[in-house]
Amino acid sequence: MSRFDEVINRRNTNSLKWDMMEAIYQIEDASTILPMWVADMDFAAPEVVIKAIGERLNHAVLGYSIVDDSTTGSFVSWVKKRHDWTINKDWVLYHSGVVPAIASIVETFTKPQDKILITPPVYPPFSIVPTALDRGMEECVMVEKDGQYSLDFDAFEKSAAKEEVKLFILCNPHNPGGIVWSEDDLREMLRLCTKYNVLILADEIHADLMFDGHKHTPLAKIASEEDARIITCMAPTKTFNLAGVQIAMMIVSDDAMRSKLSENSASHGQMGPNTFAIAAMKAVYTEGEEWLAELLAYLSANMDLVIEKIPAAVPGINITKPQGTYLLWIDYRETGLEEQEVMERLLHTGKLALDPGSKYGESGRGFLRMNIACPRATLEDGIERFIKAFK
Ligand SMILES: Cc1ncc(COP(=O)(O)O)c(C=O)c1O
To answer: Would you say 384 and 344 are in contact if contact means Cβ atoms under 8 Å apart?
Structure first.
């Protein structure tokens, strides 16, 4: 029995994943629908987090907090140990999340009408946030072959070379493609962005979620001083299931860029992360490794189970195991079904809420994103619901 086998009822806990389905999926009653959509896990937070937050609560004064050096130091040690990347604690700026960090970076380093380069299908806020800030989008759609995505670097160069393109948002590992970008690919992205003076925002929030021997390479780790300017975003929130606690780091080695970002924070009156996030972060980065090792093995087995069961039961479904992230990208194109019909069948026949692929860009049409980070019993239920929907 694994600690991740415990089924915890999350309905009526103000959970985005469990308590928002009526609005998200435009249905009247979601009380019998199983959610396997947004990227949070149905697992309890690591015991060290519950203990650290509990200890913090033993001190009943909850005034403004600061991040002390030992907490930032725990993150610096984590990236060194897990990703062999040496960073200086002065390079680390805090934010309440990676998505708000994306907004700050877009606002600080680009102007309205500038364009932001992305590689769809990709995490929706990469376009939602810049568009809301009145920036244009430049899309270099990834090439999919036999379940594997890659970049067409000729197309990427054409996009990066456009005068209006000022920022590239890299997703590494890639959500929803599950790609852990190779060093060669990263070097080519760096070379082209340097050549055309395009700033890179490397969103590496899924960096710790690696499977089957794949290894994450932080983009900034392999960059030289002459290379493109890079801002890396990382967080403990996906790795340790702390999304509701809200914390993220922007790692910026360039002093001038860091000052500009700090000025932007000041212009929005942004304070440091909240009291509980600081306690939680230090706990997981100093004592979370054992929990994470068990989690990764559990998630990997969950993915294997879906890949064994669903394609065998439903003709026309193809699933490639992600190299990183706990998000399965399910290809149903060979069933010949349209997205609308698939979503109706899933919601009304299967009673299962998955993300439709077109949410990640038009190039995602024909795919579904399934979050398999749940207890095995819940997963087995989800598999049955999926199969029922396609029968
Ligand atoms: C690539 C990527 N970036 C950012 C986020 C969300 O970050 P945050 O909750 O820190 O805003 C997610 C969540 O799924 C994600 O997949």
So the answer is: no
User: Which own/partner contact pairs does 14-19 have at CB distance under 8 Å and 24+ positions apart?
Assistant: 16/40, 17/42
Residue nearest to atom 7 of ligand 1 (CA): 98
Indicate which atom in ligand 1 lies nearest the CA of residue 235.
10
Rounded distance from Cα 250 to ligand 1 centre (Å): 13
Domains of the chain, first to last = 3-45+289-390 (3.90.1150.10), 50-286 (3.40.640.10)
Q: Is the CB of 98 under 6 A from ligand 1?
A: yes
Q: Is the CB of 280 under 6 A from ligand 1?
A: no
What tens-digit pLDDT sequence spans the chain (391 residues)?
Answer: 999 999 999 999 999 999 999 999 999 999 999 999 999 999 999 999 999 999 999 999 999 999 999 999 999 999 999 999 999 999 999 999 999 999 999 999 999 999 999 999 999 999 999 999 999 999 999 999 999 999 999 999 999 999 999 999 999 999 999 999 999 999 999 999 999 999 999 999 999 999 999 999 999 999 987 787 999 999 999 999 999 999 999 999 999 999 999 999 999 999 889 999 999 999 999 999 999 999 999 999 999 999 999 999 999 999 999 999 999 999 999 999 999 999 999 999 999 999 999 999 999 999 999 999 999 999 999 999 999 999 9
* Element (DSSP H or E) covering residue 287: helix 275-287
Q: What are phi and psi of 2, to 5 degrees?
A: -100, 155
Facing residues of 148 across strands? Answer: 145
